[in-house]
Amino acid sequence: MMFKAVGDGRPYPDHGLSTPRDWAPIPPRQVRLDQLVTTKSQLDLRSLLSSDSTFYGDLFAHVVSWRGELYLEDGLHRALRAALQQRLVLHARILELDDAGVPVPPA
Model's pTM, two decimal places? Predict the structure, then answer.
């Protein structure tokens, strides 16, 4: 299994981060693909195969940690590309949310 689970939607509350600039202060770190739950069940194949798919966005995937799960919010095409290259990890910005959905400041 490539991912822990394939979801369809975001089960966590809205956290207010919507642009790459909003996510930029969160340092990237490695996360295992088999720990991720996707929030999209479909992918545009053009995004996966495009050589410049990250040109206009963040270089790192966006992951939300909520209630013990890691949700892949943005970067499904990056994760699939990593899996196709037989890599087990992905570099991602991981936003920690408390149970109420409020961002937890980094320690």
Answer: 0.87
